[in-house]
Structure formats: C-alpha cells, structure tokens
C-alpha cells in the first residue's frame, strides 16, 4: 500500500525501483510495458518501494556459537527473494529470525535490528504471536496436522476468530495454493493421505488462509520430487502478486527460476560464521555477480 | 599358510576356514549362556503371573456366578451373597480419584513438556519429585489421608479413599502423559506457532488431540493400578457395612478391603468370596490393561500417519 502502482506487470515494475541497477545479460529482456522505454543503467528510478523488512546489522548466536554474522539487507514488497548458500551458512537461521521462530531454541540470541514496516520485530512491545500472524512460514518437510484437509486449512482461522465465511476462506486458500481442483471432492479426508507435494501445498494453503503479509518458505521443495517441486515453483509466481515471499533454497536453479532478488550467504572460512556475501537482482547474481565467492558458488566451483 | 599371512602383514591367515577360531569359541559360549539366562528370567517372571492367574481362576471360578455380581455380601459374614456393593464402591472411589488426579496430572505434564524449557531446573525438580512420589509406600499415603481427612471428619469415607488413590495416580498419569507429549512431533508445534496461534490454543487444539490416545492409555493404566491398591483404603475406608451405598462421603465398601476381610475371616465359608472377588478384580485390571495397550498402539499409528 506504500506504492500506488498496481502490479499489472510486476516483472518490469520491480526492476525500476530497486537499487543497484545492471543491464540484463542472461535472459532476454521482457517486452516493455506500453509507454515505457526499456530500462538501461542510468535511467531515473521511480520512487523506491518501501521495504517490508529493513534488517540492520542482524546477527544470530546459539549459545556461544555465532551462526550469522552482522547482516544488513532489505526485502521488498511483492517480490520473491531467494536466500541461497551452502549448508551451515545461516540461511535457515536468517529466515527463521524474521518471524521469531528461533525464540524457542534455547540459547538463541539476536543482535541488531529487524524492522518490519518500521516496527522492530524483537522490540519489547512486540508480541511474537502477532508477528507470526502476519508473517507466515512453510517448512522444509510438509507438516500438516493429523486432521482432515478442510480442518487443516480452517484451523488457524478458527483459532484466530475468523469464523465467518469459513468455507469460502478455505476454498480461497486452497485455490491460492493450486490445490483446490485436486482435493475439492475429499475435503474431509485426512491430510496425511495426500502426497508429499500436495501436503506441502496444503501447508501453503494453511499459511495463506489467515492472509499473512509475508510468506517465509524454508526449503519448501527440498523433500519433494521434481514434479511437485515444479508445482510449488509455479505457485511462487502466483503468490507474489499478493504476498511478499522469502524463500530459502539450496537449489540454485530453483532460485534462478522463482526469485526476483537473490541473497547469497556463505560460510566465512576463518570464523565459521554465516555471512551475507551478495544481494542483488537474481539475474545479476547468476550471470554477473560482483563477488568471486558468489561466482564460484553459482557456477558450481564452490567446495 | 602362516607364512603367506605374515607376508601380507595380517595377524591371521585369511585363507583358513571361516569356523570360529581363537577365543571366539569361548566368547560364543559365554554369549549363549547370557542369552539363556536372560530368557529364563523372563519366563520365570511370566510364569509367576501365569501361576497367580491360574490359582485365582481355579479358586475363584466356583464362586463366580451371576448372583455373585448382583448380590451384596451377607450381613454377618459366612457363605453366600455376592460383592455387588464392593464393585460399585470401588468403581465410584476409583472414578472420583481419576476425576481428581487426571486433570492435575495432565496440566503438570503440559507444564513440563510445553512451557518449561528442556533445561528448566523447575521441570527437572518436578520430574524428580514425581518419580519419588511414585515410590512412596501406599500405606504412608493412607496415613497422610488419615490425618488429613479421616480424623477431622471422624469417619472413614470413599472420599478419603479417592484422595489417597488420586495421590497415587498423579505421578503415574503425569509421567506417562509427559512421555506421549514428547512423541508429538516438533513440526506440528512449529506449524501452529508459525500460524500466529498462541501457545495454549496450540496445546489445546493440536498437541493434546494428537496425544489424546496416549493420555487416555496412561490414565487407564493408573486407574487399574489404583483399583487394586489396598493399603490406603485399609486406613481411609475400611469400616463399611455390606450394603450398597452411593454416599461418597460415608464409608464405602470396596473390593480390595473386602478381599482382605473375607480372607481374614474366622469362618472359612467366607474364603470363596475372597477368591471370587480377587478373580473379578484381576479380570477388570487385566481388561483395562489390554484395552489401554490397544488404544495406545492405535494412537501411535495415528501419529505416525
């Protein structure tokens, strides 16, 4: 709501407002929107869109082990932001810090600031239940409740007091997760009878049933087969029109396919601490990264 | 041969037949002895159960008729009559004990597994306390209830018996509930956390339903254990008459104490009633145990998906 432009053509729109412009080198540029010249470096930008997350010097520690070094990054509205990097580079820690899912881990400590629409996620006055109400999360392994498909999606709205038009809400969420057609005739069947990919889409439906602002996806397709993965990726492109999406993945092709912006995290070889190396438009990260570590990683030369 | 082995740097001959060599033969014998001993120990334990059961059935079967279950004991001891009032009394006492103990115990378990962190000192102290509580001799609990309830009220009562049994049940139910709550996958808790639903609602709507089968199982096992407890009832609720009563706050007949009284009787004619009552009690407890185990197996399957 901070920017007035409707997202008719978000692919073009987003390019114009983001910092650090570069000429596209990989994919052919999409056809320009009517009345708009193809953008090249140096064209004046439109008003920068306000970031959903403004993360300043965030660091994370488990007990005495520092997992994530000071990270400053902004995450923008209605974009898919991918977080990539090798195992142990702190990408899960990073994404779980955005809706305080790490709070329940003993010894977890956060440094710096995580501002969400200008509000500090970790402020004393901030309630973490309210945070998660607006910032939903989908996990690596599908984790539906041992209840029916309908009850899975209706569960959170019921418990949050959104009981009006529940059927409609459930249908909308299932349609949003591209699952409605497959399950509309068996809504009362146990969610555990679904396939892994369907379960994961059900978890996405469950998350969007409460209409969050942001969806955090922590390696949502890593436990799925390629077909199910493709359906989840298609879904990302649909969902970003309504939600701001952050997705952790260790599959670089996946990041290249779904993400508008990509952040590359790496493990500092001396300190053994996760570090943000580079953050830019996805095509820049994959075709013309500024940092040699990024280049080594995305070209597969990384050990 | 050995020369070949030496030349390859091995301390044994790799081309020798694969039968046991060296001290392996001796180790195999020791291993076999240990195995046989362990199996024998297991059989002795089960044999004891079988003997007890067989004995009770043999002696009690003759007393067991329909009339035995629907008649009260004779007014002044002796032959005939049944144990209806005892069965009803035990049922009420144990049920009320469960009503008192189970909610408290489940809340304790929820505190330990859901609210206290894994390293919480309070939870650890509580766990130790519950384990010690399980070890308190039941006669001691009976005496405690004697001072707490029986003496101030100047009479035995089913209520006092229920309180004593509830004290016995709390640690059993709390520990078993805690174990099944631990079986509820962390991912389900994360799922409800990530949906912005507060902790208590998550517990009420996700964790407890998932663990319900196990909680009921633990409760039934505790009830079965409490139903057979004699010592606390001897102190708290033993001065009852033979008649059927529903007055929980008065002395209530109950099966364990009746067995004791009948078997202690000067008149041998009362013995068959003791055996019959023992058989009924044993049957009820075995049934409860088997039912609870079936239920538990089912709930585990459900959790596993």
Write a structural description:
The complex is a heterodimer of chains A (303) and B (305). Chain A is of the alpha/beta class and 303 residues long. Chain A has helices at residues 10-17, 91-98, 128-134, 149-159, 166-176, 180-183, 196-208, 226-239, 252-258, 282-287, 292-298; strands at residues 51-62, 65-76, 80-84, 108-116, 119-120, 135-138, 214-218, 244-248, 261-267, 274-281. In chain A, the strands form 2 sheets. Chain A has a 6-stranded mixed sheet with strand order 6-7-8-3-9-10, sandwiched between helices. A 4-stranded antiparallel sheet of chain A has the order 2-1-4-5, with helices on one face. In chain A, helix 4 packs across helix 5 (166-176) and helix 7 (196-208) packs parallel to helix 8 (226-239). The longest helix of chain A is centred in the last third of the chain and has 14 residues, at 226-239. Chain B is mainly α and 305 residues long. Helices cover 74% and strands 0% of the residues of chain B. In chain B, helix 8 (186-194) packs antiparallel against helix 9. The A-B interface holds A 99, 101, 104, 106, 129-134, 136-139, 141, 143-146, 155-156, 159-160, 192, 203, 206-207, 210, 212 and B 117-119, 185, 187-188, 190-199, 201, 205-206, 210, 302-303, 305.
Structure keywords:
heterodimer, A: 303 residues, alpha/beta, 4-stranded antiparallel β-sheet, B: 305 residues, mainly alpha, 12 helices, 74% helix, 0% strand
Work out the oligomeric state of the chains in this entry.
heterodimer
Strand order of the largest sheet of chain A: 6-7-8-3-9-10
Radius of gyration of chain B: 27 Å
Terminus-to-terminus distance of chain A = 43 Å
Low-confidence stretches of chain A: 1-47
Shape assignment of chain A: globular
The description of the largest β-sheet of chain A is: 6 strands, mixed
Number of strands of chain B: 0
Biggest sheet of chain B: strands, sense, closure? none
Q: How much of the polypeptide of chain B forms β-strand, as a percent range?
A: under 5%
Mean pLDDT of chain A: 82
What order do the helices and strands of chain B follow?
HHHHHHHHHHHH
Number of helical segments with 4 or more residues of chain B: 12
**What is the ordering of alpha helices and beta strands of chain A?**
HEEEHEEHEHHHHEHEHEEHH
Secondary structure category of chain B? mainly alpha
Largest interface, by Cβ-Cβ below 8 angstroms: which chains and how many residues each?
A-B, 29 and 23 residues
Strand content of chain A: 15-25%
Distance between the termini of chain B: 58 Å
């Amino acid at each position: 709501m901070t920017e007035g432009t409707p997202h008719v053509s978000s692919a073009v729109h987003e390019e114009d407002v983001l910092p650090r412009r570069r000429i596209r080198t990989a994919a052919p540029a999409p056809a320009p929107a009517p009345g708009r010249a193809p953008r090249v470096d140096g064209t004046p930008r439109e008003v920068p869109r306000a970031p959903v997350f403004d993360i300043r010097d965030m660091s994370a520690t488990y007990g005495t082990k520092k997992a994530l070094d000071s990270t400053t990054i902004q995450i923008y509205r209605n974009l898919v932001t991918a977080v990539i990097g090798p195992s142990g580079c702190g990408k899960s820690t990073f994404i779980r810090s955005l809706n305080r899912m790490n709070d329940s881990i003993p010894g977890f400590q956060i440094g710096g600031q995580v501002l969400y629409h200008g509000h500090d996620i970790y402020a004393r006055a901030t309630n973490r239940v309210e945070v998660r109400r607006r910032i939903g999360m989908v996990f690596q392994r599908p984790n539906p409740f041992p209840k029916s498909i309908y009850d899975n999606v209706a569960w959170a709205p019921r418990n949050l007091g959104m009981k009006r038009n529940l059927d409609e809400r459930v249908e909308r969420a299932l349609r949003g997760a591209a699952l409605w057609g497959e399950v509309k005739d068996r809504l009362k069947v146990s969610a555990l009878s679904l396939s892994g990919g369907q379960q994961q889409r059900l978890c996405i439906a469950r998350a969007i049933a409460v209409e969050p602002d942001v969806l955090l996806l922590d390696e949502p397709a890593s436990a799925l087969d390629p077909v199910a993965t493709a359906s989840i990726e298609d879904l990302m492109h649909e969902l970003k029109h309504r939600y701001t999406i952050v997705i952790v993945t260790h599959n670089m092709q996946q990041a290249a396919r779904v993400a508008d912006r990509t952040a590359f995290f790496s493990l500092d070889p001396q300190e053994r601490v996760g570090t943000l190396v580079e953050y830019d438009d996805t095509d820049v990260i994959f075709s013309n990264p500024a940092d040699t570590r990024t280049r080594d990683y995305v070209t597969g030369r990384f050990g | 041969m050995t020369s070949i082995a030496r030349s390859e740097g091995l301390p044994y001959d790799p081309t020798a037949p694969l039968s046991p060599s060296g001290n392996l033969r001796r180790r195999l014998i020791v291993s076999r002895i240990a195995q046989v001993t362990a199996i024998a120990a297991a059989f002795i334990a089960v044999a004891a159960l079988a003997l007890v059961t067989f004995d009770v059935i043999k002696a009690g079967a003759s007393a067991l008729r329909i009339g035995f279950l629907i008649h009260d004991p004779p007014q002044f001891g002796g032959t005939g009559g049944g144990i209806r009032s005892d069965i009803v009394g035990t049922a009420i006492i144990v049920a009320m004990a469960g009503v008192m103990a189970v909610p408290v115990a489940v809340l304790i378990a929820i505190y330990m597994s859901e609210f206290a962190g894994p390293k919480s000192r309070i939870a650890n102290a509580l766990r130790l306390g519950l384990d010690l509580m399980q070890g308190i001799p039941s006669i001691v609990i009976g005496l405690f209830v004697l001072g707490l309830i029986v003496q101030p009220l100047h009479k035995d009562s089913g209520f006092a018996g229920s309180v004593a049994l509830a004290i016995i049940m709390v640690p059993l139910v709390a520990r078993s509930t805690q174990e099944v709550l631990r079986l509820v996958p962390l991912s389900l808790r994360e799922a409800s956390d990530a949906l912005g639903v507060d902790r208590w609602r998550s517990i009420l709507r996700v964790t407890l339903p998932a663990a319900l089968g196990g909680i009921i199982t633990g409760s039934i096992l505790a009830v079965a254990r409490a139903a057979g407890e004699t010592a606390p009832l001897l102190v708290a609720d033993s001065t009852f008459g033979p008649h059927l009563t529903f007055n929980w706050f008065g002395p209530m007949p109950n099966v364990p104490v009746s067995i004791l009284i009948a078997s202690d009787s000067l008149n041998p004619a009362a013995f068959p009633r003791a055996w019959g009552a023992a058989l009924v009690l044993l049957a009820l407890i075995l049934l409860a145990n088997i039912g609870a185990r079936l239920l538990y197996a089912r709930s585990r399957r459900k959790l596993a998906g």
